[in-house]
Amino acid sequence: MKLVGRVEEKKILNQCLADHRSHFIAIYGRRRVGKTYLIRQHFQNSFDFYVTGLANGDMHSQLINFSQALHNFGQEESTKVPGSWYEAFTMLTQLLEKSSCEKKVVFIDELAWMDTPRSKFMMGLEYFWNSWASAREDILLIGCGSAASWMINKLIRNRGGLYNRVTRRMKLSPFSLLETEKFLLSRKYKIDHYQIAQLYMALGGIPFYLDLIDPTLSIAQNIQQLFFQPDAPLQLEYDILVRSLFDDSDTHKQIIKALTLKKTGLSRKEILKNIDIKDGGGLTRALLELEQSDFIREYNKFGNKTRDSIYQLTDPFTLFHHRFLRNFQHDSNYWINQINTPAINAWQGNAFEVICLLHIGPIKRALGISGVQTSTSTWWGDGAQVDLVIDRKDQVINLIEIKFSVDEYVITKEYDAKLRNKVSMFQQATKTRKALWTTMLTTYGLKDNMYSGNVQRVIEMKDLFNE
């Protein structure tokens, strides 16, 4: 099956493959985002060595598994099982030295599972790379893992023998809307941009979840089947996901739950008020790991200093879980019966705002400012809020209002007055001297009337699907 998207990632892999020196690539990202699939498809399962760790396996089991992988790639069957990771990587070195390939591709998946307590796995890996592979020109070592805590703290930010030894790090993020569209088309599911956005609100851009879609069913039927049927495949996914990613998942769960309280996010102090955790390095580490795993974003309210950072929950799948599944009572037609209710409409409005925050690049392209230096934020004051603020180096600030509707959005007399009041309050509060442009980002643009001309720029949902 053809690999969809991942253009930049494939470019990096090809560059490292063609380079006349050895490379150590660390690939990380949340569970189900397609890390293993990317590597296996890109290299067409043609490796000089490939092994994946065993979930919950002890050191002896991991070494047996590693030994079997060595046999699969040509090591003599009579060779004994290594007694340590030092010995295991020595055997790997011996295997690779026999290879005549111009570039020897070594893929070690789920590294964190191999690093069992007191196993000295990292010592063996450091020995393999520092004493042998890095001095050569023909090794492409790819280390992959879903456990964000481990990948960030033990590999990418390693302060021991692998300090600054990773030559490329690749964070695999969820699909964009455009990549999601291409993925669904590759699965013969032809739906329009509005429906793709609705699906994205529940599943995000996670390939594994999207691959569960039944192309013979409607969006509502698919959501019902994936989340709300008895034994639905994604009903318990959130808990499994968080546990698999983070060592101290309870801390991360508490932070996520706190962030559901306010759609614009919470400051560090506000988070601490809502969780049973003391301030310190543990909280800092958890916030970083959540951000690196695409659960949250860190930003500053317009005009605030860096120390006043706001943390906002921006993962559609997690937001959907907390909104509809946390206290769900089984009902075979739950989601179908929710269609067009005020609760669903309000959720879709908020979820569309999150989708827009995840697609700042396409928004800038639609505004014609891809090459202009910008900063993005949100702003709120007394009784007023701007969904998205794009502060531009060319002395313009776009104040973006985001609306999700089934048709062209109609600006009424009352809403026009509200928009003008927001601009006035923003100017008074921030004292900015830049030009303030009211910008509307809607599903199908604006209905032409006597008030629509007061909006300087209009962006449509289709613009979010642009390259």
From TrEMBL:
Residue span(s) of domain ATPase: 4-210
Protein name, per record: ATPase AAA
InterPro entries documented for this protein: ATPase_dom, P-loop_NTPase
The species this protein was found in: Portibacter lacus
GO molecular function, one term: ATP binding
Gene3D superfamilies noted in UniProt: P-loop containing nucleotide triphosphate hydrolases (3.40.50.300)
